[in-house]
Write the structure tokens for this entry.
Amino acid sequence: MNFIKKFNLINLIIMTSKEIRQAFLDYFESKQHKIVSSAPMVVKGDPTLMFTNAGMNQFKDIFLELRQPDAKRVADSQKCLRVSGKHNDLEEVGKDTYHHTMFEMLGNWSFGDYFKAEAIEWGWEFLTEIMKLDKNRLYATVFEGDIADNLEKDTEAENFWKKYLPEDRILNGSKKDNFWEMGETGPCGPCSEIHIDLRTQEERLKISGRELVNKDHPLVIEIWNLVFIQFNRKQSGELEQLPKKHVDTGMGFERLCMAVQGKFSNYDTDVFQPIICKIAELSGFKYGVSDEVDIAMRVIADHFRTIAFSIADGQLPANEKAGYVIRRILRRAVRYAFTFLEQKTSFLHKLLPVLIEVMGEQYPEITLQQQLITKVIEEEELSFLNTLDTGIHLLNNAIEILIAEKENVLDGKLAFTLYDSFGFPPDLTELILSEKGFMLDKKGFDEHMNVQKDRSRNTIKQETDEWINVYDDDIEEFVGYDRTEARVRISRYRKAKVRGKDEYHIVFNLTPFYAESGGQVGDTGYFEADGEKIEIFDTQKEHNQIVHVTKKIPGNINLEFRAVVNSKKQKLTAANHSATHLLHFVLRKVIGEHVEQKGSLVDSEKLRFDFAHYQKLTVQQIKEVENLVNGLIRLNIPLSEFRNIPINEAKDMGAMALFGEKYGDTVRVIRFGESVELCGGIHVNATGEIGMFKIISESAIAAGIRRIEAITAFEIENYINDLENTIDSIKNVLKVPDKIAQKVEKLVEENKTLKKQVELMQKEKIKFIKQDLKANIQEVNGMNVIIAKLDAPNADFLKQISFDLKGEVSNLFLTFAAELNGKAFLSVMLGNELVEKGMNANTIIREIAKEIQGGGGGQPFYATAGGKNPKGIEAALKKCLEIIS
RNA sequence: GGGGGAUUAGCUCAGUUGGCUAGAGCGUUUGACUGGCAGUCAAAAGGUCAUCGGUUCGAUUCCGAUAUUCUCCA
């Protein structure tokens, strides 16, 4: 009760968004909930999901009973992104006042603990007592039942609501609105939504809020969804009761702020207003004057949050997958700024300081990475503005053609090409067209779009069958830190079809196989029993399970198997992984503490390390990094491994925690001397095992991000052997024992002068030949005729002479013949005077080429032909003379 | 994962029934004009037309593969 009083006082003045968020967390903490931090918005390790799109994502494996919860009651504020898949709000953003790409979801959870009664009671209490929302404006919906699923109405929830709400404010909801399912299969159950009517008194008198619930009214909105997970839907479609029932709730933070602060739009709350004010200030436009400008500002404010947080979570704009989604959002924002706020140059990045003011406290990652976020956004803006330029250029060309052809509709295919190949937004195409009085064939555009979509959909088909349980075992243990082989049993398996090929996914009760994560690739190896040996060619993680990928399943799946990791390969991978830690550590020493890991890939052949840094590393810096890492290797520092230590303890040890990474309560720490990192990977026992470290390349992969690729151990031996071989073969060719560079330099120099000499000599030769030819000009019918067979090194040589003579001899008729590589070659050159009279080298060459069994052609004044009969050359030349005589 | 496009001088780009011995602008160098800055004019240098293979008398152009890169769909 004290708790409620405390907030009553605060609520006398309007609560800020920061206070509202904190009040939620404090309230549920007072109800024995454990407050956890937001998972990163960008999802790693779940192939079905690119972004966190609901508060429950990070607890998915608990609902699937693949992980034991470490607290039965949990609450948090989760960063969410809805831009793809089932929930795609991207196109809605800005047009209305309450859709967002990124938003915060406040949620409380019960894992087999409390159920409907408490969830409803606390939901009600929080909204009415703490947030002080008007009880008369609240509505609840309950699931009305469904005949197809043989489900009855959720009278349980209805009865609890009756304690707080009059019956006419409790509404029935359909399966679509009030039955929540995680996917086609899996945990599901009825839900109960709380809606609020935020309209003016006057409006409310005209029409009852009851009529507007779930009718997409901007001010009669759902603010909290209480999901009661009590069933599991099997692949057959059948529902079965879950032994443990869960509560999963989600409340849109921005909507709550709107309700509490008495605004009519999410964008009018203090979550967005500072950003919108800044946009207005920078662009010179005013918010609230025209619809177009308002929409643009809302789009920009919304999208900017998304982009900034994604980058902070480590997801940079890119041209595929999640990075591509981010790029598209950024471009959408730029496009609105470009068209409606007349921003022809980059400006989004200037909004970051304001965003940090609003959200930096709750989410420190954006503050800490300010410089990087700014730089990346600016670079992206500039590159898109460039794409727009190109697109406008191409579109203008197309419009000129339309004008020339007196058309007024632009072909949909062309607009689609503009979009598909050049990234030019179709709505911008339409806008530019309409400004100039043209129309777009929208239907044609959509048709092409659909063709592309179908094509993509058809190729994606990756089907997985349902898991088949073989052997019951709750916990799948990873024993690979200590062993590379183990006696295992199959707990479950399934068949999958990937690119038309069958493969099997197998889960063991325990396993020495490391699943791909943290940049380290999955182990390979085999498992065997009863004389049957099956190769494991990859190991992946799915919902915390370690999935072994094979081409077949054993004949008898109930045996105990010997599972063996390819340890040679694993050792090499481990060397690269440990070297990555040393590299990270040394980079921070050499170029500064701002070096932040942005990505990493470790396999048996190489290591790749991406990190935040703004300039190219100098040659000296690279050498220094290599020297220091190699120094640490030679010190042969033993590995200190700490499993299951609390995260705070790890931080005290100086572990470099990665921002945007989500960690459980306990972590594993890997330490080599001063290098301390949180890491789940496989490492060497002492740094000496790495052998040696060599940087192979250093490059930029995005604004502010650089990539180092390096090799260790055996790979360096290969590398050195290759180098040696190359040098040896060069020495052999040059016939020198050393000072190769000097010798090569000399050769290049010589080559250059020789080339010049040859050129000169050829010119001399040409001059000589020309003189000779000119002396033997025959006059035939007023033409200066030269017909000759020459020795020539190549066709260009004859071409050169032909063009020269054309400039020197008037009324020229010139035919050359030569034998090149055993084939016959002919050319005919005519002076301009003859061409003007109607002669054509083309027709002449075709006629005479018959003699050499060949064909040819060219322009009216110069034509060439080739044939396989050199013996016909004399006849061809003779024929040539006949033609003109 | 699947589709489309691009790669031509240091930079930005032109270059269609395959043939004009590859062009423009900017930049670079040189020269002239001017007292200097700057500029104007003139000239020159600079290209394995991404790489490899194929078709052809002939390929920057057509075809195939590779590399790099952009872009769209999923």
